[in-house]
Each structure stands twice: as C-alpha cells, then as structure tokens.
Design goal:
The complex is a heterodimer of chains A (427) and B (244). Chain A has 427 residues and is of the alpha/beta class. Chain A is 35% helix and 17% strand. In chain A, a hairpin with a 2-residue loop joins strand 2 (54-63) and strand 3. Helix content of chain B is 80%, strand content 0%. Chain B has helices at residues 2-20, 22-42, 50-79, 82-88, 93-121, 129-156, 159-176, 188-194, 198-210, 217-240. The relative contact order of chain B is 0.14. Classes of the chains: A alpha/beta (427), B mainly alpha (244). Chains A and B meet through helix 1 and helix 4 of A and helix 1, helix 5 and helix 6 of B.
Chain lengths: 427, 244
Amino acid sequence: MDEPNVLRRAFTIAAGCLVALALGAAIFLPTPDPDKRAGALAITNALAFDGEFWWEDATLLIENGRVVALGSEVGIPTHARTIDVGGATILPGLIDAHVHSYGDALTQQLRFGVTTVLDMFTAPGSLPASRDARDSLAPSSRADRFSAGMLATVAGGHGSQFGVPIEAIDASTDIEKWVADRLSEGSDYIKLVYIPYQRRLPSLTLATAKTLIDAAHDAGVMAVAHVSSGRGAQDMVAAGADGLVHIWADKPVDDAFIDAALAADIFVIPTLAVFATAERSGEGVRLAEDPNFEDRLTDAQAASLRSDFGLRIPGMRLQAAIDNTRRLHDAGIPILAGSDAPNPGTAHGPSLHHELELLVRAGLSPAEALSAATVVPAERFNLQGRGELTEEARADFIVVDGDPREDPTATRALRHVFKNGADIPLD
Amino acid sequence: MRWGRAFVNEAGAEVLKAWRAPEFLLPTMLMPVAFFTLFAVVVPGSSDSPAYLLATFGVFAVMGPAIFGFGVAVANERERGWLDIKRASPASGGLYIAAKLFATVFFGALSLALIYGVAAFVAGVSLPTGTWFAMMLVHLAGSVPFALIGLTLGFLLSANGAVAVSNIVFLALSALGGLWIPVFVFPIAMQRFATLLPSYHLSELALAIGVGGDRPSGLHAGVIAIMTAVLAALAAFAWKRQRG
C-alpha cells in the first residue's frame, strides 16, 4: 500500500507550499514606508507661501498626507521627523491650468513640481481612473488631474486633428444630452472651441456655443472657451463663458472688452508658451538647455521642447499676446498659468515654469505669477485643498532654492516635490 | 474521517498528476506573468499603475490554470473512460470536484506567486500587508468559479469541443471582463455586458482593495458568491448529465 502514501505526501507538500507562500508573502512583500506616508513631518527653516501670505523663518507641519500647520511659530511634535531646508522656499504644489494629458504626462508634471493639472481635452476613457486617484491620499507618482474630457467642436474643426474620437456637434445635436454624456464620462467642466472670423477651420456658431454654455451651467459645471481672436473673446464673454483658455494676439484688448470681462467675472489662461513657439522664438530650446532641467528631461520632453509648428503662425505674435495679457492683468482680470503642453515647443512639467517667466514679462510680479499657478486656479476651478498650504489642505508642495518673489526662474531649482505628503524622487 | 482521507488522496492525486506533466500547466501559468511584465514593466507610460494592473492580471493569472488545467481536462479523462470508473466507485462527484478545486487553488497560487513577485520586486508595487493578503485571497478565491466553468464545459463537451469552446470563454472573460484593458474604455453596452462576467466582479473587488476609489466591494463580493453558487450547481448538474 505505497500509493496512498505518495498521494498523501503530494497533498501535504502542496498544502505546505500554500502555507509557505503565505508566510513568504507576509515577510517579503514590500509595504509602503510609514515615514513617507502617514508619519508627521516638519519642514523647518524655510521661506513659505501658503497661498495668501509669505512667512519668513517658517515651519510646515504635515501628517497623514495633509497640512497640519504652516507659520513662524509652529510647534513640532516629538514623533515628527524634521527636515531643515536651510532657508529654501516652500510653495504649494503648482497647478498647470491648461494641459492635454496622456501617456506619462502626469508623471512628468509631478517630477517638475506640478501636483495638479487642469486638462483641456483628452480621450475620456481615462477620466474615471484619474478621479479615483485624485480622491486618494495614498502615495502617488503622478499629478492629480481635473479634465474637460472630450471637447465641444464641429466636424473638421479645431481639436479634431489629433485622431482622438470626438462626438462633433452640428445643428441636429441635442446639446443637453451632449453635455450630460460628458458628465457621465467623468468630465469636470466643458471646454468648447469658438473660432469664427477666420476661413481656415469651421467653428461652432455663437448660438450653439451659447447653448453649450447654458447647458453646462444648468448641469452645474463650468464652461470654458478656446478663442483665437478679440471678437471671439468678446462673444464668449457675452455668452456667459466662465473663462477663456487662450489669450489672443490679433488686436489689442480694448476698454469695451475689459468692462465686459470685469462685469462677467471671467478669467483668462493666456498660454503664452504656445505663442512663444508659434513665433519660433527658440524659447523652448532655451528651456531644454536650462541647467536645472537639461539632465532631468526625458528624450520625449527634450524633443518636444525643441520642436515647433514648422512655420511662424500669423496672428500669434508673442509680444502682442504679452501686451494683451498685461492689459487684462492691469485691469484686474484674473490670470491663470497654463502651458498648453504638450504642444510643440512645450513639455509637461518644464513649460509651466516657462509660463511663470512669461507672465512676469506680461507685468505680473513674480509673486503674482506664483498665485496664478496655485491659489487662483484652485479658487476659480473650486479645487478644495489645493493651491494653498493651510490647515487640512493636501500636503502637495515643493521646496525650491532661492527666493521666487525676486526671481521667477527660481522655481526651476527644485529641491523637493511632495505629493500626498510623500517625498517624490527627482532623478 | 473517512471523507477527509479520501479527499487528501484525491487532491494529492490531482496535484501529483499535474506535477508529473508540467508541459500542460506550465504554459498557462507563465503566460499571465509574461503579459503582466509586458504591460506593467516593459511598455513605457503604463508603468504608472502597476497596482491597478496587478489587481486585474491576478484574476487573469488564476483563470488559465482553473479553466484549462483542471476544468477542461476532465473532458479528456471522461473520453478515456476514467470518469465511468469514478462514477461507479463509492466516492461522490462532490469529492471529485472538491479535489479538482484544491489542485486549482494550489496551481493558481503558484501562478499568483510569479505575478506578485514581479509586481513587488520589479514593478515596485508596495501595499500594506493586510492589503496584499486581502487581494491575494480574492485572487485565490477567484480560481473557484473559473474552475467550475471549466468543469461544466468539460463534463458536457467532447475533448476537442471543450478546448475550442473554453478558449472562447477564456478570451471573453479576459477581454470583456476588463482584465487587459479597463472596462470603462468600452462602449456603454459592453460595460453593461461586463457586469455578467465573474472576471469583471473579481477584478473590481481586487481593485477596490488594491487601488480604492468609488467601487462597491460588498456588491461585487455578493455577486461573486451568487455566481459561484450557481456555477457549482451547474457543475454538479453537468457531472450527473455528463456526456457518455
């Protein structure tokens, strides 16, 4: 009777293997470093911007992925780890208010200090996953994303050239249903393309654009508009758009526009970085050669920064765009920093730092430019706990060398990027 | 006591049989880990969510051994007359099926060990110990409904037919259940269809554990329990009505 013993032994070995695997799993499978996640951490000896005030000789205390306190007289609990940054500057994680994200975009954004992006058109399939991710405080190697999802445009219109499927809008489209479909896909707001007054590309009509804006508002979300001309911008303000996602350079901003824009309380995301490319200014190449960035760029980022549209695009003069941005800012119209990456001449991450510099050239103080990349987009897009470092805000922040109130390029000297309270490796 | 010993012998025999013919099981165990490595490690841009891929590919990893290794293989055993002897013997069909399930869980665990190893030590997934175990438990338990599907097919179909049909079932459960690419990229009709598949609910449950987000884990667990009970009844029925 040898056989049953063999069978019993086979069973015993199999059962033993299962137990051994379970034990091995308990011992060897890696667990998140508690110091990186939940542990209390104090960043001391810093200049710090909390979204409203600048604090000298400040301490930032975080725990469980959230801010506990920031100020000059913050007590440090005994169980907290401490990092003395020796006078470096703490800023809220940056917000890029105009990107198109796919592939490794969110990873690259985070590597360069951008902890939240506002996407202005991407394939909607990825939206539910990014909603899950941004609600979590678990360690993450990616920036959080809010998105328009699919954009509203006409067949053959701007936005249809990228091969991303679009439900183009025509006279027979049920606009309310179109908006409802976007919201069920996970869109956070509606973006529409309104580019009349030119013959190259077809555009939504003013009436349809207004219907879209009204439908978005009825559904409880914002509607922002891509415009490319002063008249188009004027139309969108009149139609009730919440914001314009580009500046325009075809004609100077006039008083009539400023009055209407102030009355309607709209904001503008100039995306000057793209105007720099359209003019073949070579600024993308200079960014790729910035010593702070050069060694950290992926091949794809470097190639993107060094590319352009292949021609100078008429009607997109950088200086005119800067001058218009300056007029809006001087008049008190909120300006938001957005790079429009990954257009030619831009790259996810570095280009928001470029945009900060361009906004300073448009008359924002360096500190105002930082607000345009933190607290202003957070307020305008109602991003709770982002763009500021007040109690209970997310522990998304960066530490940079130098004083970015004096030098708008100081943000490029990144020393730390913290996301959900965890220190992100910068190599 | 007698039942316990009979089960140990039956289950040991199943494990030994598979162990002695590794050319049958090895490919079904290696393919999932190869796929996972491709998508979670090799392909650039996809490596941002290795925990997500582990949750779905863990279901994929137990499905192959379950459906092919221990389910469909019974069609062969039947055609060679082995099941006639089994049915004539005093041991019950339930015992035979239970032994198959044990062997399925064992080889499913080996398949999972490979994929968890790559996830943890190559793809860089790190989770709290409780989360690792909860996910592992879901994956291991997941091999049971798949084995029952394979057994039902194996009892009812000819050996050739069982291989062909189970291939379609295997691919449909994988692709339409969202194990390779997330279900939410599908059109709405296909998303609805996915809710009929145990692979979908298992991967959602594993995702609820490993990734979190807005996923009703209790609902998914309940659906899996009901589906497993129905499949068990179906397998028992097929055992009685099996093809001669």
